[in-house]
Each structure stands twice: as structure tokens, then as C-alpha cells.
Amino acid sequence: SFLPPYSSWDAAYERELQTFQDIGDAGEIWFGEESMVRIIRWLERHEVPLDSSVLDIGTGNGVLLVELAKSGYMNLTGIDYSPSAIQLSEKVREKEGMSNIKLKVEDFLAPSAELSGFDICIDKGTFDAISLNPDDAAGKRQQYVRSLGRVLKPQGFFLITSCNWTKEELLNEFREGFEVLEELPTPKFCFGGRIGNSVTALVFQRK
């Protein structure tokens, strides 16, 4: 799963938006179907109430929110810094008839004041994309962690899926204000006789 650098996302979503308008296809699902299933299974296994407020950070085409809505979740918000991504997710939302999904253009590194009080925050690849930013990636990662602390309620859950960071690295990145609850199983790959993970999925809880 190669993620393009942060700056090229808008262009990528421009193309996907055009494709959706032409053929009704929502485009790439980053990390594939199984990562969405993994997130929803975790929420169900922990009996997270269906009226919990959920924020999808870097929602992209909004497909995860549609799947959450189909699973019965009612209080769903998606943000993306790319206006094209939000336009695309609005079209996907309309096509699926999911009026309970709120969508906003937001830069998570400078979130607006009304973006707060969420029970659950979900990130599939946005932290990765921010980490690839050539302009002060370390500072942007710290800002991400600060923003997360602002938008997520105390005791709230943060589910992150990453293809750039190991479990140990993520534990280090989110050590300020968050504790890890569990690692979710992800597909393994084998290279040169050594088994590794191409994807890391962790659940944190805000202290």
C-alpha cells in the first residue's frame, strides 16, 4: 500500500471524483476491504454503542463511514483537508442514501473549535500521509497527536491503521496522553524467509 505524499492527495481525489461522476465508482479503498472489516469487528466486539460519535480522520472517499452506517452507527463525521475528497464522499453518501453522515473540509493539524468531544477517532493512512510530508514531518506528527488530544474525549478510543510505522514506533509517537489497548491482527507477508507485517493496526485509549 504505497501512499502518495500529502500534497498530491487533492489531485488524486480530483481524478477519483471525475471517475465517480463518469461511472459511479468510488475509486481506491486504501488498505482494502479487510481493514474496514477489522475496525467494525472491533467496535462490535467491544459493544461500542451505535450512537457513539465517530470521527473518520482523512475520510477520503467516505467508504468507511458508509460501512459504519450500514452497521448501524448513527453519529458519523468525516473530515478531509482535500475539498475534492469531501465532494467525492458527498457523492458516495448520496448514492448510498446515508443522510446521517456529516462531512467537512478540515485540516486535522489545525482543527476548528467545533471538532471536539468524539467517542471514537479512526485513521486509515492519514497519519502515514502526514508523516511523508517533506516539510517538517516530525513537527506535523506532534501537531497531529495534539489535535487528537483535543478532538477525542478522555477515555475515548483511537483506531489507527498504518503501513509506514511499526507497533513500537506508533507506541512512541502516541505516548503523550494515550495508552495502547490492543493490536489488531493484520495480514502478514513473507520476504526472503522472514515474516513481517505490511500493515499495523492499533487501538489506543485517551488517558
Strand content: 25-35%
The CATH architecture term is: 3-Layer(aba) Sandwich
Oligomer: single chain
- CATH superfamily name? Vaccinia Virus protein VP39
Helix content range of the residues, please? 25-40%
Overview of this protein structure:
About 3% of the residues have low confidence. Helix 3 links the parallel strand 1 and strand 2. The two termini are 31 Å apart. Strands 3-2-1-4-5-9-6 form a 7-stranded mixed beta sheet, sandwiched between helices. It has a two-stranded antiparallel sheet with strand order 7-8. With 207 residues, the protein is of the alpha/beta class. It contains 7 helices and 9 strands.
Question: Can you tag this structure with a few keywords?
Answer:
207 residues; two-stranded antiparallel sheet; 7 helices; 38% helix; Methyltranfer_dom; EFMT2 methyltransferase; protein-lysine N-methyltransferase activity; nucleus
